[in-house]
Write a structure and sequence with these properties.
This protein is of the alpha/beta class and 679 residues long. Helix content is 51%, strand content 10%. It is built from 28 helices and 19 strands. It is elongated and about 125 Å long. The relative contact order is 0.07.
Length: 679
């Protein structure tokens, strides 16, 4: 008997966890909070310490591409990898180590962390993942943090900056409490009670101290401590500031402003109850503040920023310095940073920043992952992207970011392969390290992933059901004529030339795949090799070869040379090669083994290339009218197409296009060779 289908309301309520809600809505007295700290002293950690613990809670692993570790937060566990950051393990590890030093109080906690890099290098994405990580972390038991409110004469007054309840502790007692907490703290940092109450809390604290004649214990009976959840949407513990037009910038956007409606109620604009503590510095207290394009800030704003970092305090209008506890991360692009470096008046700001370079990707496989986020199969229903398409787009974009190799025997294409962990004869990992140390500007210039994504998107709206690498390369080249970030004609020509280089590389890949598809007929390969071996044996022993009818004949020199030419055996060396091959066969038989020609890589390569040459004429007929092609040839072409689809993942449309293109390449190559011979 089937169960009755649940209503939509039942489906909606089934996932609601009331117990989890109650845990997140915890509320208690100040005494209750101190009891919590006895059990879990890390609750009172500062913003740097909390951000570090959040990162470590997601785990890390040794980086395969750089020294240090890959931090799994940047795989975007919240969005199933939608915002994952690839190819930046080194810079991201440097960021985490900076946060670790700040958590230990070694100095970075009094600096602005400045992410510096070209447009589209994931600076905003990195900060976005840190924000999202903090939001999720504070909803967990491990990431719990707390704030407080005042309850006075039936009125509840929140701490406007969501401050740490321990700031209510008298200064004289703070040292002993710190010792007690740190004795139980199993972390590599120490809890410190630093800062003062915000103006609103100072007012109520002073009022109640006066009411109770200095009895602190009676004052804190008016305090209710509750769980604090950081949220960018609710503007709690996470702030974002983006500069506007310099003429319209106002420092109150950072530090809050007077609430003129309440001045009449409280009688003065210097009464903290008549002030909105809603500037970005206020909002981000206990968490993280992001400055978008921080170097576009007006100079007056930068002074506020310096005070916030160096002194951990801000100066709201009409009030004394107010303590803050937050991580400040700014990001900027290359032109803005160059202006900063050239401006002597900005020396104080430069001295209080820790710059972390966030370059473009320099590994093709990592760049492919960026494009897969947007152009995966599940995001493209009814559309297809042929094999190698994203790889070729990534190869081109990476090559625009690389400096020309200093090694004369190394091409830019080979350098890109090395950076991607591929083998290049004569070069090893030590050469890659040497090249990266010498090319300090690599990744700070070149083409943004956004441009490539836009050009791929442009091809996907065409009528073709399957987009190929040739379509995307043509789109990349066409877009360069109108790309606003490529204003230098010499740079534009270089990028166009790199498109040609990548197109040639792609065509070589296609030829190898078609060759493999043509040459993967195992039975035919075995027969061809057996025939070649029979002729070589007869040649080296000066005997005759028996044909299928048993009739003896001389060894087929033309056949033998057609195979040996494929692996560049010159006429003068043919005897040595044949004798060496027969010695190899004899040695195998003496050991009681069966000779497998595939075990000899040189022979295997020669046989496959020979079969490919014998059969490649069949695919040159692909471009002719189908009625002209005889059924036997059509069948051969169909077999090759099926192998391309089975072995390399092409769909039928893409496989046909590959055969058409490679047929054209062979035809042009044959015409060129005939021209050379005629000359």
């Amino acid at each position: 008997m089937t169960e009755p289908q649940r209503s939509l309301f039942e489906l909606a309520t089934s996932s609601h966890d009331r117990e989890a809600y109650r845990a997140l809505a915890w509320e208690g007295s100040f005494r209750d909070y101190l009891s919590l700290l006895e059990e879990r002293p890390w609750i009172a950690r500062n913003a740097f310490q909390r951000l570090l613990d959040m990162l470590e809670s997601h785990g890390s692993e040794p980086s395969r591409a750089a020294r240090g570790r890959r931090w799994k937060l940047f795989d975007d566990p919240f969005g199933r990898g939608r915002d994952a950051v690839y190819g930046l393990d080194g810079p991201l590890d440097a960021l985490v180590q900076t946060l670790r030093a700040g958590a230990r109080g070694f100095g970075p906690e009094r600096r602005v962390i400045l992410l510096h890099g070209p447009v589209g290098s994931s600076k905003s994405t990195i900060v976005r993942l840190l924000k999202r990580g903090l939001e999720h972390y504070t909803q967990s038991d491990a990431g719990a943090l707390y704030t407080f409110a005042w309850q006075v004469d039936g009125e509840t007054i929140d701490s406007p900056m969501h401050q740490e309840p321990l700031l209510l502790v008298p200064k004289e007692a703070r040292g002993e409490i710190e010792k007690r907490l740190n004795k139980k703290l199993r972390r590599d940092y120490r809890i410190r009670i630093e800062g003062e109450l915000d103006p609103v809390s100072r007012l109520w604290f002073a009022t109640l101290m006066e009411r109770y004649d200095g009895d602190w214990s009676k004052v804190v009976e008016h305090v209710r401590v509750r769980r604090l959840l950081l949220s960018e949407e609710d503007r709690i513990g996470i702030g974002t500031f983006q500069p506007k037009d310099e003429k319209n910038q106002d420092s109150t956007e950072l530090t809050g402003d007077v609430n003129y409606r309440k001045i009449a109620e409280y009688g003065s604009d210097s009464d903290p109850r008549a002030f909105n503590f809603d500037g970005e510095f206020n909002v981000a207290n206990r968490g993280l503040l992001e400055f978008i394009e921080v170097l576009k800030l007006d100079v007056a704003f930068l002074y506020d920023l310096l005070g916030a970092t160096q002194e951990h305090s801000i100066k709201p209008k009409k009030f004394a310095q107010t303590s803050i506890d937050e991580v400040i991360i700014g990001h900027t692009n290359e032109p803005e940073y160059k202006k900063l470096a050239a401006n002597e008046l900005m020396e104080a700001f430069r001295d209080r920043t820790i710059k972390i370079d966030i370059p473009y990707n320099l590994a093709v496989s990592d760049e492919v992952q960026i494009y897969l986020r947007q152009f995966s199969a599940e995001r493209l229903p009814g559309r297809g992207i042929a094999p190698h398409t994203l790889e070729m787009a990534a190869l081109w974009s990476v090559m625009t970011r690389l400096e020309e190799p200093t090694h004369q025997s190394l091409s830019l294409l080979q350098k890109a392969r090395l950076y991607d962990g591929k083998d290049v004869q004569g070069f090893g990992p030590e050469h890659v390290l040497e090249m990266k140390r010498a090319a300090t500007r690599e990744g700070m210039l070149g083409i943004s992933p956004r441009y490539v994504q836009d050009r791929i998107a442009a091809t996907l709206v065409s009528e073709k059901p399957t987009v190929t690498a040739l379509d995307v390369l043509a789109s990349l080249e066409e877009g360069l004529m109108h790309h606003s970030l490529v204003s230098n004609e010499e740079t534009r020509r270089r990028y166009v030339q790199l498109v040609s280089t990548v197109r040639e590389e792609f065509e070589e890949i296609l030829k190898r795949e078609v060759q493999s598809a043509i040459s993967s007929d195992r039975e035919t390969l075995d027969r061809l090799c057996a025939k070649y071996i029979d002729n070589v044996r007869a040649y080296t022993t000066r005997e005759k070869v028996l044909d299928a009818t048993g009739k003896p004949s001389d060894p087929d020199e033309r056949l033998m040379r057609s195979v040996e030419d494929k692996v560049d055996i010159p006429e003068a060396r043919k005897d040595d090669f044949r004798i060496e091959l027969m010695n190899f066969v004899s040695e195998v038989h003496r050991e009681g083994k069966t000779f497998d020609w595939r075990a000899n890589k040189r022979l295997s390569r020669a046989i496959e290339l020979k079969l490919f040459e014998d059969r490649r004429d069949s695919i040159q007929l692909v471009s002719t009218v189908s009625s002209v092609v005889d059924p036997d040839t059509q069948e051969k072409i169909g077999v090759i197409r099926d192998r391309l689809m089975r072995q390399f993942g092409y769909d039928q449309v893409a496989a046909d296009e590959v055969l058409q293109h490679v047929a054209g390449l062979f035809a042009r190559g044959a015409a060129k060779q005939e021209g050379l011979e005629a000359a």
